[in-house]
Please model this.
Amino acid sequence: MTTLQQFTARVTAGEHLVFDDMLAAAQLLFDEQSDQQQMAQFLVALSQKGETAHEVAALATVMKSYALDVQAPEGIYIDNCGTGGDGLSTFNISTTSAFVLAGGGIPIAKHGNRKISSKSGSSDVLEALGIHTLATIDDTLALLQQEGIAFLYAPNVHPRLKRIGEVRRAIGKPTIFNLVGPLTNPVPLKTQFVGINRPDFTMEYASVLQMLGRERAVVVSGARGMDEASLEGQNTFVLVDNGDLIPFALRAEDAGLRETPLEAIRGGDAQENAVILRELLDGKQSAYFDTVLLNSGIGFFAYGHASSVKEGVEMARDSILSGRAKQKLEAVIAFSDKLKREGAHS
Model:
């Protein structure tokens, strides 16, 4: 049997691992007996070589096999979780967009985590809003059934991630796990919108989504490698449409929005980002607002609700200005409060 050190040596020499080899290496990463330093060396070597579509798909396959079984209510769900790791300290765009998509009638099962390589991960901002992230799987599914939106906290559904999380924190830089996170939602997905921090990898990532059975999906990388669509510069996209992978590019103006530099959407810690999110859902106009319109618009397009990103942007605007997106936020907070109260009495 090949050891993790042997795989590391091959990767360090510049060899791309074929799917089956990466499956074997991934099993070693998830083996509770594997040495954490060797795990770190392998992940760093992969990152320095540059990961391939087969390596990402194989790791996603193994990670998902260890996830808890989540029996989601029947429906076509979308996840809009990005890879993180872009180092740009923006606010929580995809978490905010999740409420906008849900307000527009799209069932959303968002996979997320605490901050690992950012100031505020999705779970951090949800807690700052008063949304309890440690709900059980049953509670999560009840929320999904009731409101058409739920947040799956990665460590809750991936019990084997604890040791890997320790290794990732020790590395302190993005690894292949950033790329794999959005691919391992335990809720079955036919459609997805993923922002990645590598414009050169959008086509490979789209082919991974296709390998993993997505019928329709959109991959985007924004300006300066932002793992969301940006109002600044040109966004690089690939649309997965059944058997086809269709690359395209889009600027803010193409979707009827103003070009704005990334500095205008800097975030802060979880508390500051929660304030930004609330004000935005109240309809406060800003670069934050427009960024969420763009990313939610792409979500509506990825789901097939909108025939273009521009049409999706108008659906997003309507979801916010009608108050429906804010109602979704309040409904999720109320659900969480009820669970807390029941927990206190039990």
Summary: The CA atoms of residues 139 and 339 lie 8 Å apart. The mean pLDDT is 93. The two ends are 49 Å apart (CA to CA).
